[in-house]
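Researcher: We're reviewing a set of sequences before deciding which ones to prioritize for further study. For each one, I'd like a predicted 3D structure that I can look through quickly. This is Replication initiator protein A, N-terminal domain protein. If possible, include the structure in token form so it fits the rest of the review sheet.
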Amino acid sequence: MADITVNQVATQTFYQIPQIFMVNVKKKFSAEGKPTGKIKMTSLYAKKLSNDGKIAYGVLYDRCMLSIHSYRNGELTYVDENGSVFLVYTVEDLMEILDRSKPTVLKIKKELKELGLLREVKQGKNRPNRLYLQNVNAELQEYEHYDAEVVEKGRDKGTVVYHHVKTLDYKGCVLFEIERPNSEENSVLEKPIKSTNSGSQKSLPPKKAIKSMNSGSQIFLPPEVKKFNPIKTEKSHTENNSTRHSSRKPASNSNELNQTAGTCDTPSQKTSGKKFIQPQVYSLLQEIADSYFDHLPWDNAYHLTHRQKMKIGSFLETGWVTSSEVLHCIERIPQDCQSPYAYLVTSIENLMAERKLEVKLNAHKRAQEQYGG
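Model: Here's the predicted structure for Replication initiator protein A, N-terminal domain protein, in token form for your review sheet.
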């Protein structure tokens, strides 16, 4: 027998971090032991919250529990009139508690606020703000389903490649799904694309290569693009003529731009009543995200979040910018840029604005020539 010591109790005390903050992967295998797929349990918290932010939430939650314990002992200092527990910490206090610099602490607070995990109430001049830690929203849980494919030939023979085929929300409703090909000849997944920058393999859905008129590189789209019918939009005769002669307008025979209007009518999307990024655009986003990650320096590299990729996808859907041009914008991001994603979005928006302005100027010029103005 051994006594319980103070040191032993100290080693068994932990901060609580919600499991929804982390990614949990469950792999599936066949009866023969071959991988058949995997399910990745993730969330917006896991994708957007930094490790410092996750730890900070656990530390602040522990302080909230201490305030509740004090309240039960008659101490009402940290409980407001509504019964809500709050914390009183200045930035300097958080710097000491978290052992982080001031910019890092400000970044942590910003992350927690943006994700709805922290609410700050001002108390007036020269008085520290009240910090209200918020409960985690379990509805942000997502389940990403992947199919497994074993490379059978080449240097990477035996390597398992996972293809993202479906994403479900916490209720099991479909958020994203790749439409499965019906024909037997298209049912076999092709080999994954290999990045020339890092040598890692990229997991992409079934793809069909087409030729881009802008850069000469191949862009891969899923088979269902052939059946896609874009929504028709009305344009004046003058505008149609002007866009035909614009030096900034993408080539008219670009498959990527000719098929970017509307939404894909997959069965799951019909019933949900929501707008989704089209599958052919969605398949390009992983290549863009990989190029973005590979371009950033190793000490500042991070993966684009789902929401950030969807924003870039919305740019592609407008038809005013192509995926090749987005990749060129990524290549022009300075290595010492403090906000690379903001730089990328601004570059794309400037390119789109420049193209729209040129179309308007050409349309005005042609109208003057036609009507003698």
